[in-house]
Amino acid sequence: MWENSNVTQFILLGLTQNPLSQKMVFLIFLIFSVGTVLGNTLVIVNIESSRTLGSPMYYFLFYLSFVDSCYSTSTAPKLIVDALSAKKLISYSECMTQIFALHLFGCMEIFVFILMAVDHYVAICKPLHYPRIMRRQVCLILIVLAWIGSFMHSIAQVILALRLPFCGPNLNDHYCCDLQPLFKITCTDTYLLNLLLVTNSGAICLVSLTILTIIYNVILHSLRNHSAEGRKKALSNCTSHITVVVLFFGPCIFIYANPPNTFPMDKMVTVSHTIGTPFLDPLIYTLRKAEVKNAMRNL
């Protein structure tokens, strides 16, 4: 397991120190956590059991729902338990494990967004070649590559965290472990470390958002040549995905693209990123996609 000779545990300050507010945090995020798991599980079961949801789009949506559940679960249970705890302690090993999980599933979610955008592009811009390009074997290879890339990114974050020396107070002014709050309590200059974080996590967010923007600009430009009915259907599929992308990348860029600057709302932005978005994703895809709603009725 992860080891550090100078510190064995951290004290998390959480979202609030007010006892009444902590009870509200417990209730609100318990509802959010249960809703996230149930909602995404319902989407997964729905896709697996439905014969009408066998296209690559729903294959990627299956993995998005799975990753959403894991991403939320990497922080929500600890936040809920700590809301009723007098001392919010997390061991050094658990802290490193949480960093690994956060970045593994967060990065995987970004890659799945890109794969879903590519699927939309091929379906709309190259419909005649779609069955040949987006074969099941190709989709499986793309998902495996996404997992490998996410794992490599996550390992890089953990290696960076393991090199941090801690020799002062172990008060982590956050509700979870991530590199930015740990930078505040390390006893070394973090300027270069912040640059590494921006060039890694920040660059992944910005470059991925740029790729997604280009893909959807090309899609929207090509829709001019489609019929009104085809344009309406394509826009319906793209709108739900664009909505989810905006909800995810807004906080992601705020957190990782400029880490040396910290703001009072940092913790709330992280909450919306790790707990709020995974909760909303199944609702957005369920409400906006007629095929998913019909399949759920049958289920």
TrEMBL record:
Record carries keyword Transmembrane: yes
Primary subcellular site in the record, as a coarse category: membrane
GO cellular component: plasma membrane
Annotated CDD domains: 7tmA_OR4A-like (cd15939)
Domain G-protein coupled receptors family 1 profile: 39-285
Membrane topology: Multi-pass membrane protein
Pfam families on file: 7tm_4
Parts of the chain that traverse the membrane: 24-45, 57-76, 96-118, 138-162, 191-219, 240-257
Subcellular location: Membrane
Keywords on record: G-protein coupled receptor, Membrane, Olfaction, Receptor, Sensory transduction, Transducer, Transmembrane, Transmembrane helix
GO MF annotations, alphabetized: G protein-coupled receptor activity; olfactory receptor activity
Gene3D superfamilies: Rhodopsin 7-helix transmembrane proteins
PANTHER family registered for this protein in UniProt: OLFACTORY RECEPTOR (PTHR48002)
Name of the protein in question: Olfactory receptor 4C11
Organism of derivation: Sciurus carolinensis (Eastern gray squirrel)
